[in-house]
Amino acid sequence: MNSVKRCRHSRTRGLPTLLAGALTLALTLTGGPATAAQQGTLHELAAAQGKYFGSATDNSELPDAAYTAVLGSEFGQITPGNSMKWDTTEPVQGQFNFAKGDVITDFAAQHGQSVRGHTLVWHSQLPSWVGALPPAEVEAAMTHHVTEEAAHYRGKVTAWDVVNEPFNEDGTFRTSPFHTAMGTDYIATALRAAHAADPDAELYLNDYNIEGLGAKSDAMYALVSELLDEGVPLDGVGMQAHLAVQYGFPYQMQANMQRFADLGLDVAVTELDVRMQLPADAAKIATQSTYYRQVVEACLAVERCVGITVWDYTDKYSWVPSTFPGQGAANLYEENLLPKPAYYAVRTALGGEGGPGEGGGPGALRAQYRSSDSSTGDNQIKPGLQLVNTGGTAVSLSDVTVRYWFTADNGASRYSTWCDWSPIGCSSVTHRVAALGTPKAGADHYLEVGFTGGSLAPGAATGEIQLRLNKSDWSNFDESDDYSHGTGTSYADASKITVYVGGEPVWGIEP
Ligand code: 9MR
Predict the structure, then answer these.
(1) Which residues pair with residue 365 across a beta bridge?
(2) How far apart are CA 316 and CA 387, in angstroms?
(3) pLDDT digit string (tens) for 209-218?
(4) Ligand 1 mean position to 178 CA, how many Å?
(5) Which of 53, 222, 244, 321 is most buried as measured by Cβ atoms within 10 A of its Cβ?
């Protein structure tokens, strides 16, 4: 495949330099992501995992000081909701106006944020003069528009949604003045023009309902495969992710992201929100939190998922109520800018402390892990675990269980488990292996650790618990692909080891 598999930027390229410096320092001091996880904003938590966390915004929202205080601090990336669209930037042919978009890039610069440019070529919010052009003139007009706008924002945007929403739901190409004039070639033409005008920007195709496997994402997959084969400059696929609790979660989102990544492309979640039919109730709110969490988990699991942008962070400025009458409450913060359960779900999924409603509350337990086993191919697995109580309340250990997730790699299905040493005494530690009914990536079994009693005071840790397990036939494991396996030899926060209080997850991300 003669693709343009460029990897021109480091993973943290969207990070403000100062923030990156601070994080490096934090990581150096603690030997793990603990400091960022304790104190981090959503973006800092994401950045500790090599991703960005951003929000859409719009010019009309910027006079709202309470709003911009959160926008400028919690998020490391912004996308203009409207001000870089064609009807704003070239309302009359040949007359460009970048004033509103410049306000957004200025805000980003002042707050150390990266900007995704949105969008150069789209059938919607297109001034009427484009549709009125004779087809023979559309290509020149499109190329001129892309060239002028991408050149104007060169150095100020890190990525462009070059073409937005090229597909119908069934995977056929959407009709637009561009498609009518040039057929599907308009996409390659737009990408080439954008690359010529801003060779440093990451160039994306962006669409909705391509988050899961299905006809529409298959069509995007076929298109980008062909573009890469032809050497067309293309860096990534944007999955908008306008989700709704009344519909299922996108089918196999992680696998879908991974297949684009496997082509050598980045993927980004570009416009995430999760709407519901109003009024909200506890069940819808729980589903919403789950959907947000699952999107974060999918992105974290795919190395080339570069980050997540929510389509504005507060219900106050959501596009949903006006487009879907009767629906709303789609965002991470409510209208008074208070974080909702979904916000805490995202925090927890990113490896941070939770908070009211999900993943946190009293106790705020975290799992730390070190590998005591340099051999990943022998017949024993030897995780070292410790629990830390970062909350303000003591935790009764008899309510706590911990899961270390691994794969059995054939052999006998019975296990022996051991606690070799712990300062709290191995006699107070229980351990067993359980099999998953439905195997997950990197996990068809877990080692479950529990406690016969005792409590963990605020700020206290159990100290290390040296665990070991083997199969009854002593056949070998391959630990290298095990979900919870890590290679660090000193204790650090482990988001892939999960902790439960009273059966409810309080720490970590399940496979
Ligand atoms: O958020 C945008 C809203 O303010 C506009 O009225 C709307 C008009 O089409 O566009 C919204 O943003 C859209 C984005 O540009 C592309 N994906 C769908 C988004 C929500 O409609």
Answers:
(1) 389
(2) 39
(3) 999 999 999 9
(4) 20
(5) 53
What's this model's pTM, rounded to 2 decimal places? 0.68
Q: Does 271 sit in the ligand 1 pocket, CB within 6 Å?
A: yes
**Is the pLDDT at 37 greater than 70, yes or no?**
no
Q: How far apart are the first and last CA of the chain?
A: 32
> What domains sit in the chain, N to C, each tagged with a CATH number?
42-360 (3.20.20.80), 364-507 (2.60.40.710)
List, as one string, the DSSP characters of 296-363: HHHHHHSTTEEEEEES-SBGGG-SHHHHSTTEE--SSB-TTSPBPHHHHHHHHHTTS--BTTBB-SSS
Residue 81 CA to ligand 1 centre (angstroms): 6
Does the beta carbon of 82 lie inside 6 Å of ligand 1?
Answer: yes
pLDDT band at 27 (very low <50, low <70, confident <90, very high): very low
455 versus 266: the higher-pLDDT residue is: 266
Supply the residues annotated as catalytic.
165, 271
* % residues pLDDT > 90 (the chain): 76
Q: How far is the CA of 272 from the centre of ligand 1 (A)?
A: 12
